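Appendix B.2, paired examples.
Example (i):
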Amino acid sequence: MTRRFLTVHDRGNLTLPTDIRRQYGLDKPGVQVEVVARPGVIELRPHFAVPADQAWFWAQRWQAGELAVDKHVAAARLTVARDVDDFLAAMDKVRKKKRTT
């Protein structure tokens, strides 16, 4: 943990030290910092905006699916296809199983 003191300027501005800005990717104009205030504590957290064409990946529903897949893989509940034909045959089995349930 690094402890430093910053000066609050007349308009409320703070200047983060250069090494900290570089370490957290805050050295480009327009980058945002999230401010979280709790009793007796002010936290500054780097905030990285998600490009619009990637926002779907961070949607709650998609992230829930990613978590489910991670759990599936961690439990070794998966099949490795040897080639494309093997993969397509496995997908056919899944489709047939879904139709009967």
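Example (ii):
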Amino acid sequence: MRMLRWIVLGGAAVLMVTSAAAQTYDPRYPVCMQKWEWGGSTYFDCSYSSWDQCKAATVGLAAMCLENPYWSRAQPRYSGRRVRTPAPY
């Protein structure tokens, strides 16, 4: 009887555990939308190329726009020459 109780308790614990879905931030887009869902969960949608585009998508939703932390900004090109700093006087 005691063993049956532990089996039922263990089975209930296994059924309560849900699989976690990994969210990815798309590095091609600079703006993400964070949306809150019923039950307290959130997800990120990083498919916006401007703040205005993201703001238009959040109208009427429990959501906000954020800067994508993994957005790869364009790096300045270097000509290979050293930049001279002015000599102090």
